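Look over this record as teaching material.
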Amino acid sequence: MSLNKVQLIGNLGKRPYEGLETTESGNSVVTLDICVSEPYKDKNGNWIENEIWHSVRIFGQLATSTTIQKLNKGDMV
């Protein structure tokens, strides 16, 4: 068995409750759109900011937790 671990630090693209859904079995699911930016200098010395968007799904009790529901668009997570 192998373990893959990813750590994303970025800003929310929308409020979490906008992506809150319920599965057929009644479980809560929330989708977080996270923008991770990577600044770097090009060969001319100009700063360029590369943005990568990730869609993260959270299931169960964590999806409806107070912490998730208090997050707003633009918050760093």
In short: Strands lie at 11-12, 20-22, 28-41, 47-59. The helical segments are 66-70. The chain has a mean pLDDT of 90.
